[in-house]
Write a structure and sequence with these properties.
- The complex is a heterodimer of chains A (about 350) and B (about 300).
- With about 350 residues, chain A is an alpha/beta fold.
- Chain A has two domains: about 25-145, 3-Layer(aba) Sandwich (abc type-2 transporter like fold); about 150-340, no CATH class.
- Chain A has 13 helices and five strands.
- A five-stranded mixed beta sheet of chain A has the order 2-1-3-4-5, with helices on both faces.
- Chain A is elongated and about 85 Å long.
- Mean pLDDT of chain A is about 80; it is low at about 20-25.
- Chain B has helices at about 45-50, 75, 95-105, 110-120, 135-145, 165-180, 190-195, 215-220, 240, 265-275, 290-300; strands spanning about 5-15, 20-30, 35, 60-65, 65-70, 80-85, 150-155, 185-190, 200-205, 210-215, 225-235, 245-255, 255-260, 280-290.
- Chain B has eleven helices and 14 strands.
- Chain B starts with a strand and ends in a 6-residue tail after the last helix.
- With about 300 residues, chain B is of the alpha/beta class.
- The radius of gyration of chain B is 24 Å and the shape is elongated.
- Classes of the chains: A alpha/beta (about 350), B alpha/beta (about 300).
Amino acid sequence: MFWSYAFPVFLILLFGAIFGGSNSEPFRLRVAVADQDQSYFSRILVDSALARIPTFRLTEGNLDSLLAELRDGSGIMVVEIPQGFGEQLLRSDARVRVHYSEANMRFNSTAQAVMQVIEYHFAQRMKGFQPPLKFENVMVGKQGADWDYIDYLLPGLIGISVMSTCLFSIGFVLTSYREKGNLKRLQVTPLPKWVFVSAIIIQRYFIILSQAVLLLAIAVVVFGAHINGSLFEAWLFLTLGMLAFISLGFLIGARIARAETGAGIANVIFFPMMFLSGTFFPVDNLPAFLQPLLKILPLKYLVEGLRKIVVEDVSVLSLGVETTVLAACTIVFFFISLKIFRWQ
Amino acid sequence: MAEIYVQVERLRKTYGNLAAVDDISFAIAKGEVFGLLGPNGAGKTTTLEIMEGLRPADSGRVTIAGMELPGAFDRLKQIIGVQLQATSLYDRIKVAEVLELFGSYYEHAVGVDELLRLVSLEEKRKSFVKTLSGGQLQRLALALALVNDPRLVFLDEPTTGLDPQARQNLWTIIEKMKGEGRTVILTTHYMEEAERLADRVAIIDHGKIIAMDTPAALIRLLDAGGKIICTAQGNLPHDQLRDVPEITAVESENGRCVLKVTETKRALAALLRVAEENAVELMDLQVSRPNLEDVFLHLTGRHLRE
């Protein structure tokens, strides 16, 4: 009953909240404006156009501090109206710079849509006088503007493959071995528990690693992904992440004696994590009530850490939060599963 | 009794209010085949699984080869072989591979070829386990139980659910084990199996041993010996038959004559003589000797597979 009804209902509520928006809290994109011009026209653009776009949540501020926010990942997008905007507008040469951050906004399509919205609303305000606005995109981040959605996606997909292998091919498989009695048969042999567990860890580790290498190769060769950071450090960090998820798999498979229950629990963990960990799209814009939930998802830390290393060339040593969370998950999950493990 | 190899003393295991194993004691000699016979749910498997170290007993003592469970379980695992009631193996593994794999768990392992020959699965060595028939899988399970050349073998209902031919195959293999001097404990609810394989049988019902002896001695427990059944063409004088000392009762059942006898040979001779004297022709002559099924019926008032 739970899997047939409660779980699908839970999913539709969750994704409805994410994508559908609700009346009480409509989805609004955080947009910051830095008006360097402070002219008549620039104020029209800000007050009469940008401020009235219902899907924007507008904040105004100093360019340098807004860009700093963008760099540290707390900002989403900065619309810069450069000095001289008003005069340039009269010469039909007005430019608006849209700064967006590697850390938060990787979708060219979203950025394009934002620009179109700005242009449309500005033109409405200008009543028939339609000077062309030119937009300049500025990517804020260490690597400049040189990267695509595939670069964002790759760490997410690697994270998902780590998670799915561990949840299903460790968690679910162990519950099914227990249900069918494979584990009971092993229990009457002298095979020590730690050998059995180590064998599973080592075998799954190499499976996951080969999956990651395959995904990486396809992303680079077929889609032209950019590898900006150190692959060695990425491997180190990925290994830590794998250990965390292998432990999670063992936790699921430690005691449950019904394969159906095992599969169900694996799915309950899998689906929210797959969509809410910033794997396919940034999650900072999701409704506020979901934010606490997002912070406890281990996959988020794996994916974000991996992304920082591979895309932003951040050293693994400076990923204190990510490594701490994953190491803690590894230790906690592993010891709990050893404690509660049953052969039968 | 020869050297005692397995000693079970006052074993008890309860689940809630149900005493699955209720004060069971027995001893098994080295090289003996010992059968636990009883209906489903009698406590056979629970007894076996306690002895195999798979579950803890509530109280009581199990000693195998001088080592006491559960403390000595790690050492004992090297010398026992176990066939569980249901054997489940990995799907994507071949017959020879699974034997090799399980062999690797032990200090000493028997060669794969020898095991395959023993259970006649040589032709299946490269087949995936999941393609085996029920009988073949059960033979593979036997081979796995022998992979460490064990001194003591546990067989939990080795032939349940098999067709008669597959059952005969398995019996031959188990007899071979016995010939090799292994001690064997087997559970079954087939009395033919217990009679054919076991040196001694303990009959278990509701968690208690209600009788324990050689199959022949158990059968002798029954006052009534065998039965002779026939259909008489003509009037067979029952009084004359009752006068025969070896015939204890004469009854008519569905138009057939049923004699309860203490000694089959003499009773049969007497029956034939009476028939000839009265010019009665005897049809469908059947002689049946009592078996463990009858013993169980006699002891519990129920059939084994009710």
